[in-house]
Specification:
Helices cover about 80% and strands about 0% of the residues. With about 130 residues, it is an all-alpha fold.
Length: about 130
């Protein structure tokens, strides 16, 4: 992958996730919740890093294994969910209930990163 394309993707992903993170913790603060509870930082950083790895892997295999790109994309989502269930879910289940705030601390960065990844992959793959 060209370093320019990767740097551009990282910058876009970082910028969007940063804006969403600031909005997310601001809303939590305004609603008198602990803005940094529920492993929110871990979730944003983890989704950021995993999205970069998955994007890079798919992009680097776009010409060699075109028939498998969809499986790689779905596999990347499965990896993210697997890591969620290994690392975050046990923390969320300490009180035997996954609260709405706990769910959103994972789902917001996951869905935003997935959306950015999808849009950028479509853009890059259409160039080829």
């Amino acid at each position: 992958m060209s370093s320019r394309a990767l740097k551009g993707f990282i910058l876009i992903l970082f910028s969007i996730l940063l804006v969403i993170f600031i909005a997310h913790v601001s809303v939590l603060h305004l609603l008198n919740h602990d803005a940094f509870a529920n492993s929110i930082i871990t979730s944003y950083i983890g989704n950021f890093l995993l999205t970069i790895v998955i994007f890079t892997f798919i992009y680097n295999n776009r010409e060699k294994k075109t028939e498998r790109l969809g499986f790689f994309f779905l596999g990347g989502s499965m990896i993210k969910f697997t890591l969620f269930f290994i690392f975050l879910y046990p923390l969320f289940m300490q009180d035997d209930l996954v609260s709405r705030l706990e769910f959103l601390s994972f789902f917001i960065p996951y869905s935003v990163a997935l959306s950015v990844e999808t849009q950028q992959l479509i853009k890059e793959l259409n160039k080829a």
